[in-house]
From TrEMBL:
Annotated GO biological process: lipid metabolic process; nuclear membrane organization
Sequence similarity: Belongs to the TMEM43 family.
Name of the featured protein: TMM43 protein
Membrane topology category: Multi-pass membrane protein
Tree of life domain: Eukaryota
InterPro entries named among the record's database cross-references: TMEM43_fam (IPR012430)
Membrane spanning residue stretches: 29-47, 332-353, 373-393, 398-417
This protein's UniProt keywords: Endoplasmic reticulum, Membrane, Nucleus, Transmembrane, Transmembrane helix
Cellular component annotations (GO), alphabetically ordered: endoplasmic reticulum membrane; nuclear inner membrane
Classification via PANTHER family: PTHR13416, TRANSMEMBRANE PROTEIN 43
Subcellular location: Endomembrane system; Endoplasmic reticulum membrane; Nucleus envelope
Amino acid sequence: FSDTGSRKEHVKITSESKPGFLERLSETSGGMLMGLVTFLLSFYLLFTNEGRALRTAKSLDEGLSLVIPLDSIHSVSQQNEGRLVHLAGALSTSKPLFDPSYGLSIQAVKLKRHVEMYQWVEYEDSREYEENGEIKKETKYSYNTEWKSEVVNSKNFDREIGHKNPSAMAVESFTAVSPNVQVGSFVLSKGLVDKIDNFKQLSLSNLEDPHADVTRGGDYFYHSENPRRPEVGDLRVSFFYAGLSGEDPYLGSADMVSLQLFLYFANSVPSSVTSKYFSLSSKVTVVARQRGDQLIPYHTKSGDVLQILYPGDLTVEEVFQKEHESNTMKTWALRAAGWLAMFVGISLMTRIFYTLVDWFPVVRDLVNVGLKAFAFCVASSLSLLTISIGWLFYRPLWAVLIACLSVMPIVIAKSRVPPKKQQ
């Protein structure tokens, strides 16, 4: 056991007998079952992803074809009931958000209190090696004190003595949300309000210490006798806001929004809501449907729901271009995840061949390389084939082309095998 400043560490070595052939074979059988499940799930992921991607693209094209600009955000026109419109304006809320524990208030859509506690944290670094016919595992445990937003359970530490953390925080984190958020005369739906999450840290430099046992340091309130040298169990509190809706001499002007509302008719089809994350900005752009003075989701004929919010004052074309880009990125990410799941599943199912020859080092290494190459080729072919089947009902020509590509890995692999000599 060694102590280096606030960081402590010790090493623990455990050993167990080397597993026999039947034991390794049993473990491999369990892995084969898990691999089969992963393999089957990859087909479902790849197939449904293609339908989702094409449905979303058609929904976005439908929305873009129906956009109309509004002349004013301060009056609600009955002619635009259920229609797709574009507007821009400042966010407004009915009343300030307030934290009574620290006497802090702000005119914004959201106010988040973030609480951290100074705690012990355990880190592990392990390595395995074989010695005298046994498998030994050397684990180095190190301990350091850090600010963490969640309570670290020290009972799970390898050594709790000297590294004990409190079981709970005296002050909890929370997020307050304004019950009424408007742009001019229009009220944003809960789904749109949920997308206003471009949080910025609130400066506390102009505030006084709220209590005798609380000390302000920078942009934090400290529950500590000495914030510069905190002890385990001390707390620090910071605040964040999103969607500034009023004038503030220290925070700036109200956030602006640009809205895209959709023409909507009663025979629309409901489906899942699309969401979008965005970076910090003083302006946002929203896509939704107008119903009276409410801005709510728009249900497309393709079966999707459009309820989009972006930072910045974007044009209609820019909004839908970003949505198409987001849809493309999500599609390729899920394709990669599906391929990886198929590769892992095939690798686990064929692991038994590696186990059968792992007594012979040279043969074992060659078999391992061959199994990885086999899994790569089969996963690539089956992934492309599954994607082509997913496209078959939407774009038959592309489906045929992708199906042809699916056999290329097998054709290339077969072409590398030399022909048998004539006897």
